[in-house]
Amino acid sequence: METMENTESTAQTMPIPEIFEPPGVELLKNPDFSEGLKNWRQYAKCNPELVAGAQGGQNSVLVTEMSANWAVVCQDLTKPLNDCGKGTYYFGASVKTGGGAAKIMVVVHYRDDTGRNWVTSDYVGIDDKSFTYIDKTAIIDWSGDKTTEVDIYLSLEKPFEGGIIIDSMTFRHVSEMTEVEGLYRPDVALRNESPLVGVIRWDAWIGDGEGGVGQVVNRSLSPEKYHFRMPWFSKIVGPNEVFIDGATQELADKETQFAKTYGIDYFAILHYDDGMSFARKAYLNSLYRNGIKWCVVFGCGTIANDYDARSYYVKEFKKPYYQKTADGRPVIYIFQVEPWIKEGLDVIRSECEREGIPEPYVIGMNFDIPKAAMIAAELGLQGVSLYTGGSPSPGCPYSAVMESDEAKWRGMKKTGAQFVPQITTGWDKRPRYDNPNPWEPDYEDFKNQYSEQATPEQIAQSIENAFKFNDENKERTVFNSVIVYAWNENDEGGWIVPTYFELRDSGKPLRLDAIREMLKSRRAAYSDIAGLEAKTREAIENLAVAGVFGNIEGELFEPQKEVGAAEFAAYFVRSVGYWAEIGNYGLGAYDEAIAIAGALGLDIEAGDPSITYSKAVRIAADMAKAAGETKQLAEFSEDGSNAAGGEKLTRASAALLVHQLTQAIFDLPKTVPPA
Q1: Residue 226: how many CB atoms within 10 A of its CB?
Q2: Counting C-beta atoms within 10 Å of the first and last residue's C-beta, which end of the chain has fewer, N or C?
Q3: Is residue 671 part of a domain?
Q4: Do 442 and 545 belong to one domain?
């Protein structure tokens, strides 16, 4: 179910204290069932019957023979909701089970011009011993003049045979407030107009590495029916056994280049101190770390309690390859943000101020979107987002996941907060049902937590839809990014990392390739390259998607324009991702390339208005050698003997050469999976 707009949720054991007075004006008719089931109907097939012994009214309702999690009694609220209008509402229920324990939430569902929407409480545990009171204060807003098909009902977390007893329900209009107050309101002029693609990394594919998590996730994907999910560096040991270990510098370097080549702008890497920290450390040790940026995803405990980690990241915020906003603020995501991190967050802010670093741009993730907005207002965060949207129902098509994600984006918008739309590339936890892991002991329902697999084109379309949503809401998307779940949550169902079978059978990473093709319409829409040779045009488009032409804006590429040493060096450095400690961050593309070359001991003649093909090859070969590149570029270093060697380099020929050089170094996308 979808949480759309709310402010806080509580659970109280009945009876409710006499001093408790729900806010607002009651809109339900017969809320305590004192008139039996008048005004109530079945939401799905079930058996409702009145029972005695109620605490909040003359009757309670026992619901049994439930055909679905939400097969309970409901009430139509279409007229009262439209009469009261958009605003803040309070709703709740007093409920217990007919036997056993379960988790349940209160749901308000409605339709508007954008489709179906849900407003929910948190899931709350109930049993058969006493009534539990569940409530929620929510901002309910909608698109268009009116809302339709409004219902209030209850929904269990998973199928339950014990039946439930409902003592009373409530739905009340509190005020006309439609946005959370006290949220961050940035200057829209600071908006990054080019949308960024961030992707979450959960780096558990570490084989036998420290912590044991690698062994656990290896077991998850060992059954042959799950082998199609394996990351590209996996090894098939037997029909039902795999070994997946990506914890080498070489593999980490290629992962970075895969992401860079196919248009990913930054990794959002979860913080760990054990073996799962390898990917972050390998990225920071990589010769190619300038190819793609990164930022941290903190857990609340790290912010609150880990002084060493906080200090470590403050130092990283200074680096040019750490992801920042257009005005230079380092970006932080916080997983399942909670109010109790305030003191730790203030420490980070203070240390940044002491180091001369702009205040971080902090994005609070929470599956309860309005809760994230309320916490954002309380803690002074800059935005809200989600880690993943999950699956709206067991076995649903991926199109339903897309629809559910988009409903969540609308929910973020309606809170009034700055937001980063999440892209759920899939949700299928059945591997963790077949092979339970130690950190999720309550795994029984994983057999129901899945959606059908997405096509590569659907994933690309989902990202494009988020771009359009950001474009339509510029005042709420100043950071202008999407966050993709995930790079490598393969056993949980969300990934865009190349897979073993993609590369073996297709010779390319299908999901990444679809994303790159989609990005071409935004990043490579040059009107003057259509007449070029196909391989040259493809090189230009691919490099544009990868952000190589940082100095070329607008629709004209000017393919015949001559290229000088600095421009070529900039393209080469930006494509490969070489980085050296140059001590002066924030340089432009050309100056950065020259500075990096200087740090590598080379002297590029920045004033050269044009160079030959041969000289460009020598520049690339010399930079690669000085950087410590092990891949030889001999096939490109024929100098004058090459037919094109003496020709002046143009932007078109420079793009083709840089593209070929990058492919020669990284062998992408034709990397052969390990035997």
Answers
A1: 19
A2: C
A3: no
A4: no
Torsion, Cα of 544, 549, 552, 554 (10° steps): 20
Cα–Cα dist 58/51, whole Å: 9
- The predicted-structure confidence for 544-596, as pLDDT tens digits, reads as follows 999 999 778 789 999 999 998 888 888 998 899 887 654 444 445 556 666 76
Q: Which tokens sit at 391?
A: 């699956």
| Beta-bridge mates of residue 133 | 12, 94
Length of the chain: 675
Full-model pTM:
0.82
DSSP of 89-116, one letter per residue?
A: EEEEEEEEESSS-EEEEEEEEEEETTEE
Q: How far, CA to CA in Å, does 356 sit from each of 54, 315, 317, 483?
A: 62, 11, 11, 28
Select from 256, 195, 193 the least CA-distant residue to 519: 195
DSSP letters for 366-400: -SSHHHHHHHHHHHT-SEEE-S----SSTTB-HHH
* Token pair belonging to 638: 């024929």
Type of residue at 415: T
Q: Which residue has tokens 């670093």?
A: 357
pLDDT at position 110, please?
94
Q: Is the CB of residue 10 less than 8 Å from the CB of residue 375?
A: no
- Of 479, 495, 517, the residue that ends a domain is 517
Pairing of strands 266-270, 196-201: parallel
Per-residue confidence band for 263, with pLDDT thresholds at 50, 70 and 90: very high
DSSP letters of 198-230? Answer: EEEE----BTT-TTSHHHHHHHHT-SGGGGGG-
**Do 532 and 399 share a domain, yes or no?**
no
Euclidean distance between CA atoms 12 and 225, whole angstroms: 44
Q: Could you give the CA distance from residue 111 to residue 102 in angstroms, rounded to a whole number? A: 28
The two tokens of residue 464 are 């494009």
Pairing of the two strands 102-112 and 115-120: antiparallel
Beta strands in 143-286 (DSSP E): 148-156, 164-175, 196-201, 235-238, 241-243, 266-270
Token pair of 44, please? 């799905």
Whether 161 and 216 share a structural domain: no
The domain that holds 332 is classified in CATH as 3.20.20.80
CA torsion sign for 219, 220, 222, 227 is negative
Burial (0-12, 13-18, 19+ Cβ within 10 Å), 253: buried
Q: Indicate whether 194 and 54 sit together in one domain.
A: no
Structure tokens at 352: 């940044």
- How many of the other CB atoms lie within 10 Å of CB of 482? 25
Residue type (1 letter), 427: W
141 and 231, same domain (yes or no): no
- If asked whether residues 154 and 294 sit together in one domain, one would say no
Percent of the chain with pLDDT over 70: 89
Same domain, 45 and 63: yes
- Distances 105 to 93, 140, 147 between C-alpha atoms, Å: 9, 17, 22
Domain extent for 58 = 8-175
CA distances to 209, 230, 272, 425, 667 from 244, rounded to whole Å, are 11, 8, 19, 21, 21
User: Dihedral (C-alpha) 164, 170, 171, 175: value to the nearest 10 degrees?
Assistant: -140
377 and 491 in a single domain? The answer is yes
Domains in the chain: how many in total?
3
Contact predicate 91/75, CB 8 Å: no
Measure the CA–CA gap between 228 and 640, rounded to whole angstroms.
Answer: 48
Kindly state the average pLDDT of the residues 190-218: 95
